[in-house]
Specification:
288 residues, alpha/beta, TIM Barrel, two-stranded antiparallel sheet, 9 helices, 10 strands, 36% helix
């Protein structure tokens, strides 16, 4: 499928990554500066998490609509042409925080976790890296989230952590809680989810509803890059950023999002595809 444009998304910052130890932006000014670097390197979509703004609290997430508004306003002022894609992932049944941020910001897109996952990881010796957690996304919770997105005209990006969740997206369409065409993200590299393996991609694409637009979200180190390359070859869209990795294909550690997006743009071009401009991405995702 070489020759068509590849939408590149930058995942600007992580969920719990400590800014005292890693190059993740926190403040509105930092987020806007990183969005500029990512845009200039080839990204047309910015996936946005929010962090607490109090001194020393930047490693923790925030669902304060004032924080969301300040960060997104700063990004829009710096790079008004980019598409904003907000996180909505939250454990538990209460979605009021993410929905309040969507209502305040009114982004073009938002991530929508399309199924539940036992969020697990082990250490050497057999101990849990953290107490086992359930990232719970029931159909009822998904339905409430999609209802708000639909009312706000926010395009949902269905994040899928395993094959069954990919298949569930088609069922959401069948029962009418999700409009076609679907926008699917294959989340790979989470220890208890799908591994970062390029050979899985054709199977996963085959299980998607017909006409879906898809991308790979690949979490890890150098092992993420062969998956990006295969995604580009198969016609998928591309995402990276310091939420997903800190490492370039040669193992070099990055100081922010710009070098990662530059590397991903090279991956797209090596597959015969140019990165989509913001206007081209807007037309593909939003139809205008």
């Amino acid at each position: 499928m070489g020759g068509d444009k590849a939408i590149i998304t930058c995942a600007l910052t992580g969920v719990l990554t400590d800014p005292a130890q890693h190059p993740v932006p926190v403040t509105p000014a930092q987020m806007a500066a990183e969005a500029r670097r990512a845009h200039d390197a080839g990204a047309s979509v910015m996936h946005v998490h929010f962090r607490r703004q109090e001194p020393g609290m930047g490693r923790l997430p925030s669902w304060d609509p004032d924080v969301a508004e300040a960060i997104c306003a700063a990004i829009r002022a710096e790079v008004p042409e980019v598409i904003l894609n907000l996180t909505t992932g939250v454990m538990g049944d209460d979605i009021s925080g993410p929905m309040a941020c969507l209502e305040r910001v009114k982004p073009e897109m938002a991530a929508m976790n399309a199924g539940s996952l036992n969020y697990l990881r082990t250490r050497k010796g057999g101990a849990w890296a953290w107490p086992p957690m359930l990232f719970d996304n029931s159909v009822e919770k998904i339905g409430r989230t999609l209802k708000v997105m639909d009312a706000l005209e926010v395009v949902p990006e269905c994040e899928c952590f395993d094959t069954g969740i990919v298949r569930s997206v088609g069922m959401f369409q069948e029962v009418g809680i999700l409009k076609a065409p679907s926008h699917i993200s294959l989340v790979m590299g989470v220890a208890s989810g799908m591994p970062a393996r390029a050979d899985l991609l054709p199977i996963l694409v085959d299980e998607m509803p017909a006409g879906s637009r898809w991308q790979s979200i690949v979490i890890g180190r150098q092992e993420v890059w062969p998956v990006h390359a295969r995604t580009a070859e198969l016609g998928g869209h591309l995402r990276t950023g310091v939420e997903d990795t800190f490492y370039l294909p040669d193992g070099a550690h990055v100081d922010g999002n710009g070098p990662l997006i530059e590397a991903l743009a090279r991956v797209a071009r090596e597959a015969g595809r140019e990165p989509a401009t913001c206007a081209e991405a807007r037309a593909m995702i939003l139809g205008h």
